[in-house]
Design a protein that fits this description.
The protein has 328 residues and is of the alpha/beta class. 41% of the residues lie in helices and 18% in strands. The chain has 11 helices and 11 strands. The chain binds 6-O-phosphono-beta-D-fructofuranose.
């Protein structure tokens, strides 16, 4: 395989996700395998601007495949959103003789990467690393599977207390613009209802469902709400039920929050991260740029970064039916 690139930089940016370390390991080790130089950039795009680079060898990434978070650390860089920030980053990369960039992150990371690759002639490839699974061009993103398992474990525990006290719980899960965590985890925990931004459901419809459940003498219920849900947050929903259905439900709220981003990655995330890390290095070596590597139908696939960030609705239409049928 011929490559004009001799030294890569790899960084993690945006909300960290379990499996990012496994991915860094794969990028570094495949660079070493192909006898290319590689530096790890600390603190995402902020570190890229500041020249905060760490030369890496195979041994730099030992014993990290199982660790959550990101050893390179992450940031949501404001400076990289400015032309000056991008130009300073480019100069810092040139000074360090870096001629290829691999970014691991979500849509904010990719928007930055896209603009950077258009402004400066440097090859850039993205690897999908976000618990939200909201990138077009990969069936799964790194961290999604681990986050789902964290949610399922937490909600199963909440189910125990809900059932013991005959309570209705509204549980908020992460997913700023996407309901994929809510939907998949909601099905897995047997939620009575799931509210996601992609399928706006009126609060009236939720109240109807709760009335029906009450008539059927369902004693406890779990409603999973994606944080990006347009109809209101969990606290407002709980208040609405208290006011409109007085005496019928003892309502509680739980916001799972950042525990969803932590923890040791699952087997699925480690394998996905390893495949994508190697894929990214080999694709950029082959001359690809401005694209995201993903896995579609178990095959490595490339998608332009401009398309990857488009938030194309990825909720299969039959999934909401599954929820409806199983929650009777
Ligand atoms: O993009 C990942 C994510 O965890 C979203 O689900 C969530 O809305 C956001 O990051 C939270 O970001 P922060 O940690 O910056 O508050």
């Amino acid at each position: 395989m011929l490559s004009k690139i001799s030294k890569f930089a790899v960084l993690t940016s945006g909300g960290e996700a379990p499996g990012m370390n496994a991915c860094i390991r794969a990028v570094v080790r495949s660079c070493v395998y192909h006898q290319l130089g590689v530096v790890g950039v600390h603190r995402g795009y902020d570190g890229l601007i500041d020249g905060d680079y760490e030369p890496m060898q195979a041994s730099s990434v030992r014993n990290i495949i199982h660790r959550g978070g990101t050893v390179l650390r992450s940031a949501r860089s404001q400076r990289f959103r400015t032309p000056e920030g991008m130009d300073t980053a480019y100069q810092a990369m040139r000074t360090a003789d870096i001629d290829g960039l691999i970014v691991i992150g979500g849509d904010g990371t990719f928007r930055g990467a896209l603009e950077f690759s258009q402004r400066h002639t440097i090859p850039v490839i993205g690897i999908p690393g976000t618990i939200d699974n909201d990138l077009h061009g990969s069936d799964f993103t790194i961290g999604y599977d681990t986050a789902l398992n964290t949610v399922v474990e937490a909600v199963d525990k909440i189910r125990d207390t809900a059932a013991s006290h005959d309570r209705l719980f509204f549980i908020e899960v992460m997913g700023r613009d996407a309901g994929l965590i809510a939907l998949r985890a909601g099905i897995a925990v047997g939620a009575e209802d799931i509210l996601v931004p992609e399928h706006p459901q009126s609060v009236e419809r939720l109240l109807e469902n709760l009335e029906t459940a009450h008539r059927r003498k369902k004693l406890s219920s779990i409603v999973i709400v994606a944080e990006g849900e347009k109809e209101g947050n969990v606290f407002k929903l709980a208040e609405r039920v208290r006011q409109q259905m007085p005496g019928k439900y003892d309502v509680r709220v739980a916001v799972l929050g950042h525990i969803q981003r932590g923890g040791s990655p699952t087997c699925a995330d480690r394998v996905l991260a390893s495949r994508l890390g190697i894929g990214a290095v080999e694709k950029i070596m082959a001359g690809e740029t401005g694209k995201m590597v993903g896995i579609i139908n178990n095959e490595l696939a490339l998608t332009p970064l401009s398309l990857a960030v488009k938030h194309i609705n990825t909720i299969p239409s039959d999934w909401m039916r599954v929820v409806e049928i199983l929650s009777i």
